[in-house]
Automatic annotation (TrEMBL):
Transmembrane segments: none annotated. Keywords: Elongation factor, Protein biosynthesis. The gene is EFB1. This is Elongation factor 1 beta/delta chain. GO terms for molecular function: guanyl-nucleotide exchange factor activity; translation elongation factor activity. SUPFAM superfamilies: eEF-1beta-like (SSF54984), GST C-terminal domain-like (SSF47616). It comes from Scheffersomyces stipitis (strain ATCC 58785 / CBS 6054 / NBRC 10063 / NRRL Y-11545).
């Protein structure tokens, strides 16, 4: 079976079996073959694709989501057992089910509100700032770097590290809120100090 078998949007089962020992439809990296199958699958199963992508967006909250009804049995099982797992047509049963649903939603909302907002994602960064030569005033360079203020940016400890021929580089730690601070833009701002700064590099970075 090849990726061409899926261009007309083959079944979910066939696609699943085809990808059992593969990460991509063709070769060892993403390609237009993957795009073709992806689009074909979305066209054939638009509602499932919408639902799957939407539910995937709740991945960080899976454990906190409220309880729900048991999933429906297969059509064959329903024919054999004649059981409707989503309830009956009885108005009273439906009313009780709706009350239970609303109660669980309210409990989930209260639980989520009690937890408060999630803490902002932060990164600890070690930045190397390289001067032009051994005559660069490193104290001025440090002062200019730390004078950069931005919401979500906190400067930390620093040190001057010899790199050879009497030249030292500034190595400084900082904590940034990922959603507020662009490291590329921060480096560009530091490098605007052309009298002192030759270049900058991220020496290390880790999530907090």
């Amino acid at each position: 079976m090849s990726f061409s078998d899926f261009t007309n949007a083959s079944t979910l089962k066939s696609l699943n079996e085809f990808l059992a020992d593969k990460s991509y439809v063709e070769g060892t990296s993403a390609s237009q073959a993957d795009v073709t199958v992806y689009k074909a699958f979305q066209k054939e199963y638009p509602q499932f694709s919408r639902w799957f992508n939407h539910i995937a967006s709740f991945a960080d909250e899976f454990e906190d989501l409220p309880a729900g009804k048991a999933p429906a049995a297969s059509a064959a099982e329903e024919d054999d057992d004649d059981v409707d797992l989503f309830g009956s047509d009885d108005d009273e049963v439906d009313e009780e089910a709706e009350k239970l649903k609303q109660q669980r939603l309210a409990e989930y909302a209260a639980k989520k509100a009690a937890k408060g907002p999630k803490p902002a994602a932060k990164s600890l960064v070690t930045l190397d700032v390289k001067p032009w030569d051994d005559e660069t005033n490193m104290d001025e360079l440090l002062e200019n770097v730390k004078s950069i203020e931005q919401d979500g940016l906190v400067w930390g400890a620093h040190q001057f590290i010899p790199v050879g021929y009497g030249v030292k580089k500034l190595q400084i730690n900082l904590v940034v809120e990922d959603d507020k601070v662009s490291l590329d833009e921060l480096q560009a701002t530091i490098e605007e100090d052309e009298d002192h700064v030759q270049s900058t590099d991220i020496a290390a970075m880790s999530k907090l």
